[in-house]
Every structure is written in structure tokens, then in C-alpha cells.
Amino acid sequence: MQSLSLWLKLGTIVVAIWAAAGPLPSDLVERTYSQGFYPRLQLRLTTFSNMTAVSLLDVGAIMTVAIVAVRWFVRVRHAGRDRRRVVRTILLLMVETLVMAAVLYLWFVVAWGMNYRRQPLRHTLDFREERITPEALRGLATRTISELNALYPAAWRETWPALGEMPEFLRTGFMRAQRQLGIGWGVVPAVPKRSLLNAYFTRTAVDGMTDPFFLETLVNQNLLPFEQPFVVAHEWAHLAGYADESEANFMGWLTCMQGDARTRYSAWISLYGTVLSAVPERERAEIATSLQAGPRRDLRAMVERIEQQSIPAARRAEEAIYDRFLKANRVEAGIASYGEVVRLLLGTRFTDEGTPVLRGR
Question: Is the dihedral of CA 354, 356, 360, 361 positive or negative?
């Protein structure tokens, strides 16, 4: 019986290693997981997690750490002072802890992580590399500034919604974005939640995250009001199965484009730095001079929020860790994938109404 238990444990670890490193065709993942199993799971998990304002990720993390710590304490204490028995107990505990980590990783893969292996969004869109030109980039940068200047008065004329109001505020735009991207199932939007990780978010300048175990949306509570709509829309795009950061930015932008002046302003100001940084430095300053005082103040407020609340060393460490995480999950660009949204915006054909054209249509 003990032999069977050992083989099950070793088998779990081997399966987890294969899940991390084993090859899988992206079209198979797209067909059977991202368009098959995952939509049904997302409906149930997010609906369940929306039933409470408490972050289930927090609860799960606390319980997991407590169980491991208590198990180690009790077993090592029970081993007494017999050195050989203590060593054997510690080795067994290490194996058991590794098995628990393997089980958690497998749940991550099943619940959301397999989306990292799906087909890129550009395979769905009418996307062509030849559309990405210096002229098109300058046009996008100029449009970004023009939109910010035009939207600022109307955006600030209204009261910005609270985080708790985001589901109703963004729901219609999110549904329209799903239809425009050809998503054939109704993604359940998550209620933005506060997490015990908020202190970490603040110190590392992380705007939010999607809980890959319970499919929740966790948001940095210190975001400025005009930052919140785009951040929530970005995290909802992750719930739609777009694990790649550039694709989540694209769908988040598309969601906000369907709303009022506030959501559109939030989208453009959130992408401003990404778009302008792609422009050659010698042209950047000249283009930016046309940005008016209102949007310029908001951009300065965003920078000040990050500088005042975060710790530079913590920001760099978090970026390095997340970069490695993304690359380990087959996102070759790593953290630079955030900026790849510019290529998606430039390379995709849009209708005159601003709807992205899908391939073959």
C-alpha cells in the first residue's frame, strides 16, 4: 500500500513536470481547451467567486501555508530525538510538500494556465505585419494625444465610478468586445476585489492580477479613478482566456472603446506611455508637445502615485520575476509583451466604426 502511495506521489510530480514542459499543438489547445473546457469552467468558477467579496486566493493561500506549517511541526515533533527518524521524516515531508506544489500547479494549468498555449489572437484578426510602419506608428501616437485632448473635458465632467460599480459600468462594453472578437461564449465578468496582496501591489507598482485558481479579479486599491476602468477591462480579458498581456491590453482597450468618455479616456491614457515609447526618441518630444494641460496633469499624477507608493528595488524584482514567469509559460517576449499591443493595434484592420476585422471576413 505504501509502495502504491509512493508511486502515486511520484506520478503526480512527473505529470506536473510534463504539463510544464511537454509539447502541445496550439490548435489543439485552442479547440479543446480555450474554446471547449475553459469556457464552462470560467462560467462556474467566476460565478462562485463572485458570491463573496473576500478574495478566495487569499483564503486558499492562508489555508495552504497553515496546513503545510502545521503538518511539518507536528510530524517533526512526533519524530522525537532519533536522528535517523528525524531525517526520514523531513525527507518524506519534502516529498509530500513537492506533491502538494505539483497538485497546485496542475490546478493552475487546468483552471487557466493552459491559455498560454492557445493560438495567438492575431490568427483570429485580419492582422498583417506590413501594416506596421513608422508612418502608422506616428499616426497612432498622434491619435492617442488627440483622443486624450478631446475626451478630457467630458471624462472629468462626470463622477468616476467606484471599483464596486465597475461590473455594471463596463459590462455592456465587455459584451460588445467579446462579439467583435468572435468569442462564442459569454465570459462572466468578475467583481473587482481587494486582496491581502494589496501592499505588494502598491510597493511593486502592480495594477492588478487575475487569480488563476478561482478566476477572480484583484485590483490595486490605490489606483487613480481614471486608471481603474482600463485595468479592470484588462483583467477581464484574462478571464476571457487571453493570457498574453498584449492581447489582454488589446481586448481591454476594445472594451473601453465601447463605453462613454470616461472609459475611452482611461484606455488611451493607460496606453499613452506604451505608444509614445515605441516612437523614435527624436520624434517623441515633438509629438508630445500637443498634449494639453489636463491629460498632462493626469499622466504626472500616475507617475507620482508610482514614485510615492512603490519601492524601486521591489519594482525591479517583481518585473524580473514576472518576466521569468511569462517566459516559462511560453511568452517569448516576457514582460515586454505588454508593449506588443502597439503591434496588434497597428497590424489589425479596423472598420470605419472602429470594429476589428476578423480573418476571412
Answer: negative
